[in-house]
Amino acid sequence: MFYCDECRKKKGWPEGLRGSRGRCEVCGDGAVCHDVPSHAIPLPKPVPCKTCGEPTTMMGTKLCDGCWEVESRLEKYLESEKGREHVVRRLKECDAVFKW
């Protein structure tokens, strides 16, 4: 993970290989960043996914893994006729089971 010195200090995160070039993954600043393995950074307290409500530690998107996968790929999937057919079929199955 890349983060700038200012974000490192605010979060209390460890120093890493300073001098890496890239954008801070916290604030987006293009400064010289610390390069630290993600496992060395404590996970944030989970928040509810903004779509399904399941706990997630993904603070940027606020989406759990499952919702991120669907929402980031759905548009491309629906460009395919077979993809659209599959989604419609699954929605009809859900309608029959859940009686929305």
Task: Briefly say what this structure is.
The protein is of the alpha+beta class and 100 residues long.
Question: Could you characterize what this model shows?
Answer:
Strand 4 and strand 5 form a beta hairpin. This protein is an alpha+beta fold. The model has no long low-confidence stretch (mean pLDDT 85). The strands form two sheets. It has a three-stranded antiparallel sheet with strand order 1-3-2. It has helices at 5-11, 65-78, 81-98, and strands at 2-4, 17-21, 32-35, 47-48, 55-56. It contains three helices and five strands, in the order βαββββαα. 39% of the residues lie in helices and 16% in strands.
Task: Name its key features.
single chain; 100 residues; alpha+beta; three-stranded antiparallel β-sheet; two-stranded antiparallel ribbon; 3 helices; 39% helix
